[in-house]
Amino acid sequence: MSADNTTNIPGPEDWRDLLANPYLAGPIKFVLPFVIALGIFAGLYLIESYHQFLVISGLLAAYFFPPAGKESIIPIAIMMGYPWWLVTLAIFLLDVAVSLFVVWNFDLALKIPLIGRLLESGMTAGRTYTDARPWLRRFSTVGLILFVFFPLQGTGAMNGAILGRLLGLDMYRVFSCVCIGSLASSLALALGSDALLDVYHQNPMFGIGILAAIVVAVLAAVMGWRIHKGRLRERIPR
């Protein structure tokens, strides 16, 4: 009588048990975000020419260092000829990797010198944001999506994931909110930049006028944001 080989196939409960093992889950949670990030660059290397790969890799690397952000990296990449869908996908997947790393490894990452300082600055930005908007705790899910969506310095996937932690949301909700906000923001910027580029090709003067108006509006928003943060700091007792 032969043995039933199907009993040796791991079922869903077996996989959950494996991932519940801290000795296995810990390394996976730490390594997987880096694997996703490296996979993005590997994919770009395969589909782009070497020169184009180097350029977009430099732009994506700059995305991690303020004051660069979606509002600058995405339009620059599209004006350099990269398709909007590729730029959107690359930025979105980077945000996925960053948010996964933060929600899974926050306490551990705080102990890593460079990453820890970045996370601490993100905690400061998150506290400033919530102090200025007390209603945010009542509408935490929508507020977190909006925080990630608006492309202002100090917002984004990393600080959004940190803000979600400060709001006490579970990691799955934080990750979902960051992904929704990132995808919506990246799509809006990419499609807007692509449309503006088409307008410029058809009517250069009109395109430049629209771009100038957008730049003025962005600068005004950034200055207003900084003034608001400065006033908020003055109100906080020391």
From TrEMBL:
The chain crosses the membrane at residues 30-47, 53-69, 81-104, 139-162, 174-193, 205-225. InterPro entries: Sm_multidrug_ex. The keyword Transmembrane helix applies. The keyword Chaperone does not apply. It comes from the Archaea. Keywords: Membrane, Transmembrane, Transmembrane helix. This is Small multi-drug export protein.
